[in-house]
């Protein structure tokens, strides 16, 4: 009985994994022909496939699709799913929010935080409060002057052992800890962004690893 139960469980799991496969079968202006688990459906931008994938934007070259909680930019016949790992460079796709910001969850030294993409910041920057929450020690670190919107503040120059945005990961990333509670959100500055290609189309920002 136990062996039969295991076999049934594995069969159900395999069925679930198979159903998660998505393939782009056709690309059009503002529409995509998506196939999920063998079911094809023409999905227009802003709408969703019957099995859950939502098309954000599309043209004759590629489509931006939200699938399994992640954003993917896909080309013709590109297939993704549990059994498939996308090859090539890692890519992170962000949507601009109502404040005209591109925000993302990041992992700094293994801990999660929210950050805003800021190409105007020369380095990754965070407040002293955020640094403490992330377990970043800056006592004794070199003191630097930081130009902010409210004037010049004291900061501490540190290096982040690991910073990851989606699947894009960099080590020993230069950063500054600003004395006080500003910035309110971690600034993902050029000390990280210089290692990625940045492309903005409409309200979509795509970061691609080199």
- Roughly how much helix do the residues carry, as a percent range? 10-25%
Average pLDDT across residues?
A: 84
Number of helices: 3
| Biggest sheet descriptor | 7 strands, mixed
Structural class designation: mainly beta
The low-pLDDT segments are 1-19, 83-87
- Inertia-based shape: elongated
Quote the beta fraction. over 45%
SSE run: HEEEEEEEEEEEHEEEEHEE
Radius of gyration, in angstroms, nearest whole number:
21 Å
> What's the count of strands?
17
Straight-line N-to-C gap: 52 Å
Description:
It contains 3 helices and 17 strands. The strands form 4 sheets. Strands 9, 10, 11, 12, 13, 14 and 15 form a 7-stranded mixed β-sheet that branches. Strands 3-2-1-7 form a 4-stranded antiparallel β-sheet, with no helix packed on it. A 3-stranded antiparallel β-sheet has the order 4-5-6, with no helix packed on it. With 210 residues, it is mainly β. The radius of gyration is 21 Å and the shape is elongated. It starts with a helix and ends with a strand.
In summary, what is this structure?
The protein has three helices and 17 strands.
Topology of helices and strands:
Elements: H1 2-19, E1 22-28, E2 31-36, E3 39-44, E4 54-58, E5 63-67, E6 70-74, E7 79-80, E8 91-95, E9 103-108, E10 111-117, E11 124-127, H2 128-133, E12 143-148, E13 151-165, E14 168-178, E15 186-188, H3 190-193, E16 196-201, E17 204-209
Parallel strand pairs: 10-15, 11-14
Antiparallel strand pairs: 1-2, 1-7, 2-3, 4-5, 5-6, 8-17, 9-10, 9-13, 12-13, 13-14, 16-17
């Amino acid at each position: 009985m136990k062996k039969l139960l295991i076999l049934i469980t594995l069969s159900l799991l395999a069925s679930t994994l198979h159903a998660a496969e998505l393939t782009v079968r056709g690309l059009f202006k503002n529409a995509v022909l998506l196939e999920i688990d063998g079911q094809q459906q023409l999905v227009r931008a802003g709408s969703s496939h019957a099995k859950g994938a939502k098309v954000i934007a599309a043209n004759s070259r590629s489509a931006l699709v939200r699938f399994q909680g992640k954003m993917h930019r896909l080309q013709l016949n590109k297939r993704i799913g549990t059994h498939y790992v996308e090859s090539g460079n890692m890519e992170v796709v962000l949507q601009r929010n109502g404040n005209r910001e591109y925000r993302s969850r990041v992992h700094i030294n293994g801990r999660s935080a929210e950050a805003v993409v800021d190409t105007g910041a020369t380095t990754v920057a965070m407040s002293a409060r955020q640094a403490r929450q992330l377990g970043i020690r800056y006592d004794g670190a070199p003191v630097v002057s930081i130009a902010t919107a409210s004037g010049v503040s004291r900061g501490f120059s540190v290096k982040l052992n690991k910073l990851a945005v989606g699947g894009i990961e960099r080590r020993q990333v230069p950063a500054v800890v600003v004395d006080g509670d500003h910035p309110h959100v971690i600034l993902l500055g050029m000390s990280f962004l210089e290692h990625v290609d940045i492309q903005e189309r409409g309200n979509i920002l795509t970061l691609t690893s080199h």
